[in-house]
Amino acid sequence: MEVYISANIKQDFIVSKHTIPLSNGRKINWPTAVTLLLLHIGAVAAFFFFSWKALAIAIVVHWIAVGWGISLGYHRLHTHQSYQCPLWMEYFLAVCGTLTLEGGPMFWVGTHRIHHAKSDQPGDPHSPVLDGGFWAHIGWILFGETNHNDTILMIKHAPDLSKHRFYYWLNTNHWVPPTALGVLLLVFGGLPVFLWAGCLRTVYGLHATWLVNSATHMFGKRRFNTRDDSRNSLIIALLTFGEGWHNNHHAHQTSARHGLTWYELDISWITLKMLRAVGLVWGIRTAKVDSQVLQKAA
Fold first, then answer.
1. Is the pLDDT confidence value at 184 over 80?
2. How many CB atoms lie within 10 A of CB 254?
3. What are the extents of the domains in the chain?
4. Which long-range contacts (CB under 8 A, 24 or more apart) does 33-39 make?
5. For position 157, what pLDDT does the model report?
């Protein structure tokens, strides 16, 4: 069953209006910075250890982590509740999301909901309009408060997830799945697989996701007159399984479909239709090109 979004549908998420605090002095977060530096070194080293096997595994893990974990999981399901699925699948997608090193589900969901509530306004964690492209892309990660493990703080931003002990545990211990994956890649795949499916894959996924935060509020076309500066970008949509249709998304936040026309490729939407065909998802919310703008708190 597909539910079309209209102006009469209330987006009734319970979201705290308090912003996530950032460091006034913007001091560098050394653990985060060192981790990212090592990952980037590993990503460069991967090109000196190329193998088709390593590349294939990296592509598969990337799809699982970003395509399923971030796009289908953290974003369209956990944050915006744009479709329904079995609880075990919700948990599975959340674990996939941690493989990107973008934090636990409560941190990711809470931060993103604040972004929608304060989009390109004071309090937005990553607005290029207010703080520049560098801050929106990676600066807020390097210099902002490290709230990835602060589950108590993030409860008020993701109260629905906090009702689940599993999400509570996973948010505090979000480093466990990617660490376990890294060990498995190294032990069973060797150094080439670790560098490609571990380091390079993670770096690529991070920057692709960060481009949604930065570039899609700077470059591209605007179909809907939203209150922020969100834009649609084909290039970023191709890099992120459909997340680049950002203006569409900001106009219709609970729509599971971001590419609203046949020519706006949205791989996650295609995946959802396949999952619906086999009965794994239902109650999908979708918007149309002529739908009225429904820009409210996520």
1. yes
2. 22
3. 27-224
4. 33/142, 35/101, 36/138, 36/141, 36/142, 36/206, 39/101, 39/199, 39/202, 39/203, 39/206
5. 85
